[in-house]
Specification:
Elements lengths: L2 E2 L4 H10 L1 E7 L4 E4 L8 E6 L3 E7 L4 E6 L19 E8 L6 E7 L2 E6 L15 E6 L4 E7 L9 E9 L12 H5 L4 H10 L2 E13 L4 E14 L5 E2 L6 E8 L11 E8 L2 E4 L5 H13 L11
Parallel strand pairs: 2-4, 3-5, 4-6
Antiparallel strand pairs: 1-9, 5-12, 6-11, 7-10, 7-12, 8-9, 8-11, 13-14, 13-17, 14-16, 15-16, 17-18
Length: 305
């Protein structure tokens, strides 16, 4: 849940933003720096131009102003839905479990909204590495403000997190308001689009389903018989029979159950984890693909038996 910055902090944050120090950092995907090279009360400007990357701030002092402007490829528009407002960009950040020494704010319309708070010294153990997501229109800038917090000893303070920005993912697995959309079955057009645009497309069977109530996720264990595409190595070969195994996640509220038969699993990678998009039965996919091919409406093709 996003919380508005306390009124007391706002004048101080505005003052920091006006005091921009000369430590001007330009990179493509990731940034790593130390607060020991910053003056107290200064703000370092950082510009990142990738769809994903890492930020690691050692011994936080002062503040960072992080602008995210990825060069996203043209994203195929998903089928129009009632109330849709055109192209959107989903941005997510995931703090490290050892995140300490700073707080992360989302800069929006001249206001700061608290995303990640500092883990206080008296709190034991690691913080929950919770993913925080928000949505932007395609042309709107994404900016984060990372403010250091006062501590007597900063030697063990490291504010580190990962970020991701994506176009409209169609099936949607990131934002809470997309749960209903993510859980409904895909129509024929969405199946064809998913096969062409997903980070992974595999054929296989469901081995088991584990429901994680704490994370509100269901983890589907998949045994693959054919890997058509995978952006990262998500499904690993085991044994000598040509099969690969991996896990795919979806929302607990979707009520996924272990089904019998062969499926086409599609989806996207979110902070290194595979999230389920469309998953039609293989026989249904072959029918959909055949109809689209005869009508010359296939945007891409994958090999089928």
């Amino acid at each position: 849940m996003l919380l508005l910055t306390p009124v007391v902090l706002w004048p101080c944050l505005l003052s920091l933003l006006r005091t921009v120090c000369c430590n001007y950092s330009v990179d493509l995907c990731s940034w790593k720096g130390s607060g020991l090279s910053q003056e107290p009360g200064s703000v370092e400007q950082i510009f990142l131009h990738c769809a994903e990357g890492d930020v690691e701030w050692l011994y936080p002092v002062g503040a960072l102003h992080l602008s995210l402007s990825p060069r996203l490829p043209p994203w195929p528009a998903s089928p129009a839905t009632p109330g849709s407002r055109g192209a959107r960009v989903t941005a997510c950040i995931k703090p490290a479990e050892s995140f300490r020494g700073a707080q992360i704010y989302l800069e929006r319309d001249g206001e700061l909204q608290l995303l990640v708070r500092d883990q206080q010294e008296e709190e034991d153990g690691a913080i929950e590495a919770k993913v925080h997501c928000f949505s932007r229109s395609a042309g709107e800038k994404v900016a984060l403000f990372i403010q250091s917090t006062l501590h007597r000893d900063i030697s063990r303070r490291i504010a580190a997190f990962k970020y991701e920005l994506r176009g409209d993912w169609g099936s949607g697995v990131l934002l809470p308001q997309q749960i209903e959309r993510a859980c409904r079955p895909c129509n024929d057009t969405e199946v064809l689009m998913a096969v062409c645009t997903s980070d992974f497309v595999v054929r296989g069977h469901i081995r088991s389903v584990f429901h994680d109530a704490e994370r509100q996720e269901s983890i589907v264990s998949v045994s693959t018989t054919k890997i058509y595409r995978q952006k990262y190595t998500l499904f690993h070969p085991i044994g000598k029979y040509g099969k690969s195994f991996g896990e795919v996640r979806t929302f607990l509220k979707c009520g996924v159950k272990q089904g019998v038969g062969t499926f086409i699993f599609t989806g996207h990678v979110h902070f290194g984890e595979a999230w389920l998009g469309c998953a039609p039965r293989y026989k249904d996919f072959k029918r959909i693909s055949k109809v689209a091919k005869e009508a010359h409406e296939n945007q891409c093709e994958i090999e089928s038996d």
